[in-house]
Design goal:
152 residues; three-stranded antiparallel β-sheet; 17% strand; flat
């Protein structure tokens, strides 16, 4: 670019500047999008279904066919009896059934208990298949060799 034109543009922009020492800074308002609008739409839809909150439910566990559990530690449960609908809101975590076993035995039905029994049998078979060769190897490791000569 031509140096004369560049000097001319710089001089023009310096003259057009406003502000300086002591003038307030211009603040930029950043727009923050929240998921509140989605929540409002959901609540409006639930209100149309005439749902009622069910109190006293601390956690929700949904048992899947593959042996995993969809666990909601802090769930909000609502129900619409006329529509035969139950709504569970909250953050769900996918966990293995064995992680939750002691605390959820009272919540399990007959189908889930049968599934837990099958899962336990599968673990026992896997342990028995894995323990066969390793059991003889560990027995060999536990044998203490006899002393052949005196070390003193």
């Amino acid at each position: 670019m031509n140096p004369e034109k560049l000097a001319k543009l710089q001089a023009a922009s310096a003259a057009a500047r406003i502000g300086g020492k002591g003038t307030p800074r211009r603040k930029v308002n950043k727009v923050v999008k929240t998921s509140g609008s989605d929540d409002k739409k959901l609540q409006a839809t639930l209100k149309k279904l005439n749902t009622q909150s069910i109190l006293g439910i601390e956690e929700v566990n949904m048992f899947k066919q593959d042996g995993s559990v969809l666990h909601f530690p802090t769930a909000k449960v609502q129900a619409a009896t006329l529509n035969n609908t139950i709504i569970i809101t909250g953050t769900g975590q996918k966990k293995d059934l064995t992680e939750l076993v002691p605390g959820i035995l009272t919540q399990m039905g007959a189908e889930s208990l049968a599934q837990l029994r099958r899962l336990a049998e599968a673990y026992q078979q896997a342990a028995a298949a894995g323990a066969g060769p390793s059991a003889s190897a560990s027995a060999d490791d536990e044998d203490v060799p006899e002393l052949v000569e005196n070390f003193e």
